[in-house]
User: Fold this.
Amino acid sequence: MKHYPAEFKADAVALYRSRPGATIKSVAADLGVNTETLRNWIRAVDGRRAGSHVTHQAAGPAASMSLEAENAALRKQNAELRQEREILRRAAKYFAGETNW
Assistant:
C-alpha cells in the first residue's frame, strides 16, 4: 500500500472539486491513484469540514432536541453560578467591613 503526503491528498481533493464535470474515476486516473483511495480522501475532507451537508443531515431533529436540552441545562447552571457569586461577593463585603478597626 502506498502512502501519500497530506499535501498531495489535499491537492487531489482540490483538483477534483475544481473540475465540475469530472468524475472521481477520471481524476484518480489522471493522478495515478486508486479510485477508492481518492474517494476516501474526499470523504475524509467532507467529514472534517464544518459546513458539510453530510454533517447537517446527520444532525437531524434528535440532535437539535439534545442541543436545546443542553442549552437549558447550561442556562440553569449559569444562573446558579451567578447566584453563588453574588452570595460570595456579599460575604466578602460583610467580612471586609468587620475587619476594619
In short: The helical segments are 6-18, 24-31, 35-48, 53-98. The chain has two domains: 1-49, 58-101. The chain is about 80% helix and 0% strand. The radius of gyration is 27 Å.
